[in-house]
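Lab notebook, bench 4. Continuing the backlog of folding jobs that were queued last week. Each job is logged with the same field layout so the records can be merged later without manual cleanup. Today's entry covers Methionyl-tRNA synthetase, a 323-residue chain. Filled in by technician R.K.

JOB TYPE: sequence-to-structure
TARGET: Methionyl-tRNA synthetase
LENGTH: 323
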Amino acid sequence: MGLENVKHVVLVLSGKGGVGKSSVTLQLALSLSQQGHNVGILDIDLTGPSIPRLLNLEDKKVTQAPGGWLPVKVHDAVQADPNGAITTTSSSRRGSLHALSLAFLLPSRSSAVIWRGPKKTAMIRQFVSDVLWPPNTDYLLIDTPPGTSDEHIAIVEELHKLAAEVETVTNGNGISLHIDHRPKLSGAVVVTTPQAISTADVRKELNFCVKTQIDVLGVIENMAGYMCPCCGEVSNVFSKGGGEIMARECNVPFLGSVPIDTGFGAMVEGATASQQASTTDGTSSNSEKPTELVERYKECGLCPIFADFAKRVDEKVQPVTAS
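JOB STATUS: finished
OUTPUT FIELD FOLLOWS
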C-alpha cells in the first residue's frame, strides 16, 4: 500500500475553478512544515497541474524505485540542536516537504493530457498505491481539480477502500493481531471566493462531502479583498463575507478569509530568477537571502494567516491520532 507511511490525508476541494486551490494547498503545506510536520502534496489535477509551477520544480522528474515512485523533494526537515548547529533529521522544528504531480511524468510543461475517465481513474489509483512517501509523513494534502467528477470519485473511493483494510497477523503465541496501516482520511478543506457565483458552485462540493462521508475541516474564503504591498491595508475590491455566510448556512467550520497578496505571486514567480542570480553573479546580496521557498514564505504577508489555518486544521485532526 502506497500510503502506509502517511498518517493523515486532507483533500483540498472546490466546486469552482480559479479560486486558488493550488495556492491554498501549497501555503497550508508550507505552514504545516514550518510547524514541524512532515508533509506531502499530491496533485491530482491531471489536465491542469499547477503544483510543480508554484514550487518552481517543473524540470524535476519522478524517480522509479523498487516498489513504486519516489516523490520530488521540495525541502528537507531541519533541526537546531542545543549548540546552535543546524542538522537535517526527520524529527525537527521544520518538517520536510515532498510533492508528486502528473506534470513530473510528462515530457514537457506544454504536453497536453487528453484522457477519458477510465484512464484518469487508473492514474489516480496508481498515485494511491505506487507512490512511496517518506516514513513519518504526517500530512498528505491532495490538490484536486474543480468540480465533482472522475478524479474526485476515484480518490475518495480509493481512500475509503484503504480505510476498510486492516492487516491480520499471528504472533508466536498463536494470537491474532490486527495491525492498522490505514492512513486517516481526516477530511477536506474547501476553498471559495466571496462572490455568489462561486459559493453557489462550492455548495455543491459541500453536498459532495456529505454524500461521500468526508468531514469538512473548514472553509477558506480566498481572494477576499486586496492587500496593499506598501502598507498592508486590505481593501474589499470585489466583496467579502460570502464564504463565511455559506459556511454558516451549511453548518461547517469557517477557517477565515485570505486577501489577494501580490507579494505571494512575486515570491513564487521570482524564485527561479533569484536562485539563478545567486549562482551566476556570486553577489553577497543574493546569497544572503533565503533560497528555499519555505524560508522565503516567512516574509510573505499571508504567512501568519495560513499559520493560523494550519494550526486549527491540526487541532481538528489530532484527536483522531490520540484515539
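OBSERVATION: The longest strand covers residues 184-192.
SIGNED: R.K.
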